[in-house]
Amino acid sequence: MEETLKLTEDQLKEIQALNNKFMSLKIGIADAEIQKKKLLSELSELQGQFKAMEDALIEEYGQDAVIDLKTGDVKPSKDKDGKNK
Q1: Alpha-carbon gap, residue 84 to 68, rounded angstroms
Q2: pLDDT digits (tens, 9 = 90+) for 3-24
């Protein structure tokens, strides 16, 4: 009958610790990927809302109107002669 070889106590503890750390990092990466997909989905939805608001503002104030996002001031678009539309 062949004798079974065994790791030393220190070798076993070290390899188990390394394996646990490895598995923990893999789970962390998976969680980060799930979070990334969620955030990308939220970003896509927000971009759609932004586009809808942008379209509504263009309809109301004109294509070339300039809106100050801090104050809400709107500089109307100008026609070819430089006059406000």
Answers
A1: 17
A2: 999 999 999 999 999 999 999 9
Alpha-carbon span 30 to 37, nearest angstrom: 11
Q: How many domains does the chain have?
A: 1
Stated length of the chain: 85
Residue type, 12: L
Among 2, 20, 18, which Cα is nearest to 10's? 18
Strand blocks (E) in the chain:
66-67, 74-75
In a domain, residue 74? The reply is no
80 assigned to some structural domain: no
Task: Provide the whole-model pTM.
Answer: 0.65
Strand segments (E) across 19-78: 66-67, 74-75
